[in-house]
Amino acid sequence: MQVVVVGLGYVGSVCSACLSNRGHSVVGVDTSSFKVDCIQRGMSPIVEKDLGELIAAAREKGLLRATADLEDAVLNSEISLISVATPSNPNYTPNLGAVDAVVRNIGHALRKKSGPHVIVLRSTVPPGTTEARILPILLEASGREIGEGLSLVFNPEFLREGSSVKDFHQPPQTVVGSLDEAGYLAMEKMYAGLPGAFVRTSTKVAESVKYLCNVFHALKIVFANEAGSVLKAFGMDGREVMKIFCQDTQLNISAAYMRPGFAFGGSCLPKEVKGFITLARDHDIQIPALGALIDSNEMHIKRAYELIARDGRKRVAFFGLAFKPGTDDMRDSPLVALAERLLGKGFELSIFDDFVKVSRLLGKNKEFIEREIPHLERLLSDDAEAVLHDAEVIVIGHAGAEVRRVIAQRAAGRRIVDLSGYADLRDSGAAEYEGICW
Ligand SMILES: NC(=O)c1ccc[n+]([C@@H]2O[C@H](COP(=O)([O-])OP(=O)(O)OC[C@H]3O[C@@H](n4cnc5c(N)ncnc54)[C@H](O)[C@@H]3O)[C@@H](O)[C@H]2O)c1
Q1: Nearest CA, atom 38, ligand 1
Q2: Is the CB–ligand 1 distance for residue 45 below 6 Å?
Q3: Fewest CB atoms less than 10 Å from the CB: which of 13, 198, 226, 256?
């Protein structure tokens, strides 16, 4: 393919070299004459392993050149990748001035070009930017419409400086958000042969994935460093502990616990988190990130309350009381905390929980229920239909498939607030459905 790469920094120079290495004909564009000259002389404009050799080889094969003339480059290409910098403004919003300018210039150039063109934003931008900000600039400048010779794509870059050439050829996945089919097809063609899944999604989701990846990687580093600092204070080698910790690919390094939903609770997590924070404090080790876990969790319970309270309806059918489905354990259950908050604010509750029901029938958790939550016990019902009877709002902490069927049948005209994410409830025909994180 005939590819233009605008912005020859870390991302752009690696992309230019790697795409030409894969057989594409690439023109790099930058306002920096130093970077343009470097490429023209077959040298890398940045310090990066293997990049100099790749650029030299691509120059020799005649598959790579660089220029400051964006218009000329666009007129002779079918696809333009934008990887200019998006530095932070003083308030930490990204400065998108360079992206705007490049998109406008590409749009103007397209007025002189016949034939379709695909514009691909690779710079990291906040969710919604491509559609809400870049699209109007592009449409106005080019005079074209999406799908009529114009495609707009957001395709995040996951490479890491220092190993970016290797990362380019072995991406974890290729994520593509496009506003039309031609955009996806062009990207499939450009990346043909790369390993990893090719994920088609919306531009907004693709933008969000990139942001979250960076935040998560930072969180992982902070977790390891705070944990390691506390462990060191106990005379331990944090690296040894983390090595074994990471060998658990079922619960630790995995998708477990990574589904947005309701707060954590139960007999272990709150207790151990508080215990670990106390250990750190006892040794004068500051752990601001881990130290904020309990507050963050409580904030989420408050968020759930505000979501339920928002429209003023007070009669609530409340499903799920134990801290997770499949157990009758209500110790430190965030659903108990939520129910108590609702009661305290004058809501009328009727509560159902499949497993608490069984436990009550067998007398198993009877003592705990009577001692710890007598105020909730009198609101517990063994009959899901009866719980729904007068309800205006249905709150779903968790519910089994059979109970969800009962709820779905009676959802019409009521509002469902889903803290767990059941697809069958979203499609149940409730007057209003809203999830806590969706
Ligand atoms: N560096 C990384 O590891 C990395 C990884 C993934 C994504 N990103 C994102 O990719 C984007 C680029 O990052 P980078 O590290 O390559 O930036 P960089 O600062 O190294 O390079 C940006 C380049 O854009 C050029 N430029 C600026 N305005 C221009 C214009 N109007 N026309 C042409 N060229 C112009 C600059 O001269 C510079 O060479 C950023 O949004 C960044 O967040 C970076």
Answers
A1: 9
A2: no
A3: 256
Output the six-digit token pair for 165.
Answer: 């050439």
Instruction: Report the alpha-carbon distance of residue 221 to residue 410 in Å, rounded.
Output: 47
- For residue range 358-391, list pLDDT tens digits in order: 777 677 777 888 888 889 989 999 999 999 999 9
Catalytic site includes residue 268: yes
pTM as predicted = 0.94
**Per-residue three-class SS string for 60-125:** HHCCEEEECCHHHHHHCCCEEEECCCCCECCCCCECCHHHHHHHHHHHHHHCCCCCCEEEEECCCC
Which residue, among 106, 135, 119, 138, has the nearest Cα to 79 in the 3D structure? 119
Distance between CA atoms of residues 405 and 354, nearest Å:
14
Confidence label for 431 from pLDDT (cuts 50, 70 and 90): confident
Catalytic residue among 18, 213, 246, 268: 268
Q: Which tokens belong to 63?
A: 């598959």
* The amino acid at 344: G
Mean pLDDT, residues 70-88 taken together:
98
238 φ, ψ (degrees, to nearest 5): -55, -30
Per-residue pLDDT averaged across 116-131, rounded?
A: 98
- What are 408-417's pLDDT values in tens digits? 999 999 999 9
**Which positions ≥6 away from 258 have C-beta within 8 Å?**
none
C-alpha 351, offset from chain centre: 33
Atom of ligand 1 nearest to the CA of 7: 24
Q: Which of 6, 10, 122 to mutate to test the pocket of ligand 1 (most atoms within 8 A of CB)?
A: 10
